[in-house]
Structures are given as C-alpha cells and as structure tokens.
Design brief:
Blueprint: H1 10-22, E1 50-54, E2 60-63, E3 100-102, H2 110-113, E4 118-122, E5 129-134, E6 138-139, E7 145-146, E8 149-153, E9 157-161
Antiparallel strand pairs: 1-2, 1-9, 3-8, 4-5, 5-8, 6-7
The structure holds zinc ion (ZN) (2 copies).
One zinc ion (ZN) is lined by residues 70, 72, 98, 140, 142, 144.
Family: Belongs to the protein-tyrosine phosphatase family. Non-receptor class dual specificity subfamily.
Keywords: Hydrolase, Protein phosphatase
GO cellular component, one term: nucleus
Amino acid sequence: MGCAVDSSSALYKQHRLQVLTERFSELQDLPQEVFAVDPTNAHQSPNTEVLYRCRKCRRALFRSSSILSHMEGSGPTAFAHKRITESVHLRGSGPDKCTSYFIEPVQWMESALLGVTEGQLLCPKCTSKLGSFSWWGEQCSCGHWVTPAFQIHKSRVDEARTLSVGNFHTTKT
Ligand SMILES: [Zn+2]
Ligand SMILES: [Zn+2]
C-alpha cells in the first residue's frame, strides 16, 4: 500500500522484460501482460498518443506509449564489452541519432517471439520487414545497448498523429 508500481513507465516495462530474459527457459509461454495491446484491437483511442503504422500497408503497429526510450549512448547498459566507435560523442543529443524505435512487445509479435532468442519482426499484415528482436539485446544506432530489444526501424513506420496540437515531451532536467 502506498507504494504502487507505475506499470506504465518505460523503466518498469524494461525491467519486467529483463527479468523475463533471466528466466529464458520458461519463455515457451510468455505471460500475456508483457504484450502491449495490439492497436488494431484497442477499443478506445487515446487521442494524445501517436500511432505508428506500417509504411507499406498502413497497418497500426504500436503506440507511442510502447516505446521504451533510452539515454543515447550512455546509461548503465552501455556496456564496455561492446565498445562503440566515435559516434558516441554527445553533441546535441537529439532523438534523431536513434534510427530505430525500441518498443515493448506487442501482441502481434507473440508468435514470432516464442521459443526463439532472436529474429526478424515482420509486419503482421504485409510481412515486410520492420526490424528485429533479440532477448539478449541489440545496439541502437546511438550506441546504447538495449536488452531485450524489440527494434523497429524508423524508416519502416509512419507516425500517425491523432492530435493536431503537438504534445511534445520535453526532457526535464
Ligand atoms: Zn538510441
Ligand atoms: Zn505492412
């Protein structure tokens, strides 16, 4: 009581996924709560969220709330064993350095994730390649190591803003 876990925070979601990878032998049966609701199944459409669609077939893939953001090229998961070359210079840390979105798993991925450690993420409708996943983690273009990683290339999806007034996230210091 009084110490409820904010289950919607990206940090919590990421932690939950990391706990999962430690029990990888059990991953034949993924708990349903790790999957974000497929946006095509959602009844209500919160109008403050950005929806991301397949660039090819316009199939709704995930919402902005599913994006697990990270500090670029830094943070505790930027391991030394995967040294990044010169790109880590923190010059103007705009989000553009990351060429991929790292998101939580969404329901349409489930069949692709079961029983395998890594693979491709394909559009559930047109099967064009959207990105890749690995329970062991993948490196973002900014140098940050994300574990586990469900990586969607930004060039493969389109943002569909449902709100004309931008609701931009400003980084608080
Ligand atoms: Zn990044
Ligand atoms: Zn598609």
